[in-house]
Every structure is written in structure tokens, then in C-alpha cells.
Amino acid sequence: MKDDHTQQRLIRQAREGDTDAMDQLLQGHFRSAYNLAFRLTGNYDDAQDVLAEAFLRVYNALPRFRGDAHFSTWLYRIVMNVFLDERKKQRLRRHESLEAMIQLADSQVELQIEDESPGPMETLERGEEAEIVQRAVLTLPESQRLMIALYHFQNQTYEEIAAITSLPIGTVKSRLNRARLALRGKLHEQRELLGR
After folding, report:
1. What whole-number distance in Å separates Cα of residue 63 and Cα of residue 15?
2. Structural domains present in the chain
3. 10 Å Cβ neighbour count for 174?
């Protein structure tokens, strides 16, 4: 988002029913909110679903937003809650992945998203490591995955994570430390499997 003053103006206008202001407000936070949703779900489609539901909740709840926290903190909390709600629903209903049922002969279809990262060679070099880290993060329990995603991928401070999760800062630090240790263990296992 551009600056706090602009954001406050957009929030005020959106509360008054200005849909253009609401669009600008959400568009300004789209990338970071989507990144959080993707880090939590590990799947482009699920991340889009989580973000769509989160933005719908923001739209409905904005008149009740008091401004006690930054808008981004409030938005991340909503994204987190939508993710957790979806996980609860998935546990309650048994389903199979469509990918498991579809057999493609000698090819694989992958969703293409515009990439603003460095050039192809650098991306190729970092791609394998990033994929290993992402897979390891996805194997963590939800609470640890959330801590890693908020702190390391969304660059949130301890105070911001405490506000998002409604936890004391000491608990945030403790949980983040446990999540890091668990992730380090998972990555160590991967390194051994890859012979590194």
C-alpha cells in the first residue's frame, strides 16, 4: 500500500460504500495476502479460494474495522481464519484429489502465473531449493506453518504476529522457535535424502 494516509482515506471511503476505494484497498494488499494464502495452502487454486473468501469477509466486515491494528494485520488474520476454517471443513468431509484421478500420457499440466523474479538461470538454481523448503513447510502442523509463513515469508514482526493470532508475544516467539526447529529437522531429512 502506498502510505498510511492514503490507506486511511481508502478505508474511510470504502466504509462509506465507495466500491472503487474498496477495490484499490484490496488490490494494494493482493500480492502479500495471496502470498500468505499460498504459503499456507501450498496450492495455487486453494490459495485463490482462500483469498476470495477472505476478501469477501473483508468487504462484509470493513464497517466494523476499528483500526486498532494495521489494515494488513487485520487482513492477514482474516486470511488465517479462512484457511483454518477450510482445513476444518476438509477434515469433516472425505474427498479425493482430481489430480489423483486424471492420468495424462507423458505430460503434466501446470498453472502458469506471471513471474517477476530474476532471470531463468537464477530462478532455475533457486527453484529446487525453494520447492524443497515449501514442501517441508507444508508438512508442518498448521500452527507451525502459520508462524513460518507470517514471520519468514510475510516479514511480520513478533508484535504483528501476536495481533494476527491473538497470542502473547512470548507465545509467538516460543511457537516460532519450535516451528523453526521442526522445519530444520524436515530440511535435514531432505538433505540426507538428496545426498547433500
Report:
1. 5
2. 1-113 (1.10.1740.10), 117-196 (1.10.10.10)
3. 13
Q: How far apart are CA 191 and CA 196, in angstroms?
A: 5
Q: What is the pTM of this model?
A: 0.63
Is the distance from CB of 36 to CB of 137 less than 8 angstroms? no
Contact 183, 137 (CB under 8 A): yes
The pLDDT tens digits for 118-147 are 555 555 556 677 777 788 888 889 889 989
* pLDDT tens profile 73-110: 899 999 999 998 888 877 765 544 444 444 455 555 44
Q: Three-class SS string for the chain?
A: CCCHHHHHHHHHHHHCCCHHHHHHHHHHHHHHHHHHHHHHHCCHHHHHHHHHHHHHHHHHHHHHCCCCCCHHHHHHHHHHHHHHHHHHHHHHCCCCCHHHHCCCCCCCCCCCCCCCCCCHHHHHHHHHHHHHHHHHHHCCCHHHHHHHHHHHHCCCCHHHHHHHHCCCHHHHHHHHHHHHHHHHHHHHHHHHHHCC
- The C-alpha atoms of residue 79 and residue 33 are separated, in whole angstroms, by 7
Which amino acid, residue 189? E
